[in-house]
# Entry
Amino acid sequence: MTSRSNPPPDHGTGGDGGNGENADTVSELLGGDARELWESAEDLYENAPCGYLSTLLDGTIVKVNTTLLTWLGRTREELVGRRSFSDLLTVGGRLYHETHFAPLLRMQGHIGGIALEMRTADGERLPVLVTSTLKHSPDGRPLLIRTTVFDARDRRSYERELLRARREAERERERVQRLATTLQRSLLPPTLPEVPGAEVASHYHTASADEVGGDFYDLFPLADGRWGIFLGDVSGKGAGAAALTSLTRYTLRSASVYDPDPLRVLANLNTVLNHEYQGDDPRYCTVVFGVLTPDERGCSLTLASGGHPPALLLRADGTADYVPTPGGRLIGLLPDAHPVSTTVRLAPGDTLVLYTDGLTEARTDDVGGRYGEDALLAFAGGLAPAGASEAVAAIAKLLEGFGEGLDDDTAVLALGVPPA
Amino acid sequence: MDVRVRHNITTTGREDGPVVLLAHGFGCDQNLWRLVTPALAEEFRVVLFDHVGSGRSDPAAWDAERYSSLEGYADDVLEICRDLDLRDVTFVGHSVSSMIGVLAARREPERFAKLVLLVPSPRYVDEGDYRGGFTREDIEELLESLDSNYLGWSAAMAPVIMGNPERPELGEELTNSFCRTDPDMARVFARTTFLSDNREDLAGVSVPTLVVRCVPDAIAPPEVGEFVRDRIPGSVLVTLDATGHCPQLSAPEATVEAIASFARAR
# Structure
């Protein structure tokens, strides 16, 4: 294991150290032949299996044992009174000693188990573990520093392995996060398009940096000056959810090219998902899909929902309400989802907010309490009237306020008609 | 964010006394001033704080990019002065904080009455004729030492330590109760400290400045103290009867005397 070993105990110093009573007991225990090997305090100091060092407060070495001299390849004359402890360290170790070790020792009177490297006479590095205590005078003034030094070569190579593994793990984690972020971006529009006569805004909260979220939204132009809008939440997380999101998003986009009627679009999506994820791996989503038709006095919006929480309407007159779309089932689970549609009119000053259930399901206490739809409606009532950006900013702040309680991904998309 | 929480600011001493702002260096926190604070408090209003990333500062305020430059720390010092409405401040910066003080005083000289630079070094790494005392490899060695020693730090305990400043006893179970630092933050601070070059900033200091050095000092060699004195117009250099890089611990009385006599002089 270690190539440097301590010399065997010095026979010459044995036998006569320590007090007599103890010596008799120990020699009895050791047996007659071992008398020669009897421990003296001095021999224990000089040839202990660790280095001993005493220094003045400024670090000047005043006493050092044979073990440490042997490890370092130094003589007592070279060190005592001439060198300080930090002179024996590598330069990096000296920096560490001055900035951490010495101040802490001074403040605590003790510092233990610090990994440093000493420099031997032939220039090699000796990894050691160092412990120091301050010796005080009877009136409490610090007098001396006593230091023990343990050979830590094997321990250090083991620690290096741990550090290497840790760095490796950190790099992997960064890679995974980068991948997740990139994938996430590809599933959301980079920026929302400008809709004439309307203001739009969105917010996306990712619950975990390591995984792709399962929420999605989009806003895109259709033929005849109309616009398609959707927002939803797929089952699951991670790569599987990302694949499902991708399929959902492209199905919604292409289905709306052929026939943008929200009920038809959701029926198409239901069929595609139902066929794709059959058997023992059913995957599904909740989604609200709408077609927006701007006119001179605002716009009208036909919405269809499959199992998704109802949209919020913030009116110009300061009231707020849910836009009910009851009855629609989860999309993709069964051959027919029976989506339900409704049409809502947005007058100047009105804003419609779509969101995923991360918002209403956020935990608000330690006993399972959730934020809930009532609280959200009350919040919206306090907010109205508000434009799309203002509403989204307020909800983003609300989400931030949930802190750890917000444990799911959350998407928010708002569309408002600016006041006349 | 509340600057007082962000920096774990503590104020002590005479309410109506002149303000002495004590800034700790790399490796510890405001505890480093514990032996000099009581004596200074008899005469001055003493303001102590932890740099973000050190001691009991708010870990949420950490921003690796902001704190990759001493300017980020100098911004913090100015924010502290503004938030506490400190005026005619005698700024005492230990080690790297002396350069943080130089940057802050350059930016807003009207805030500061005086600067005390305790064992300063504007550049730790040798370069051309300039002797800072270290090579780049030495600094890498220091980073290794940091990696091998998570002083008083345990990831499991971190939320307890950092999140409960009102319950310090929770942290005392750890071996080293002072100067705890998140190892990742310490690495950034170490790099910022030891790889910065503020030699060009010294000439722009316009407030009265005292340069304090110790001989020997394993981190700031004596000629570096002279270098700083020569570059800061009108500055004064004193050599303390103290050894090592932390005179506020090894020679608290002499350190107090140096700070107080300079701060009180008209």
In short: Chain B touches chain A at residues 25-28, 31-32, 34, 95, 134-135, 138-149, 151, 175-179, 194, 218-219, 243-246, 249-250 (CB under 8 Å). The mean pLDDT of chain B is 88.
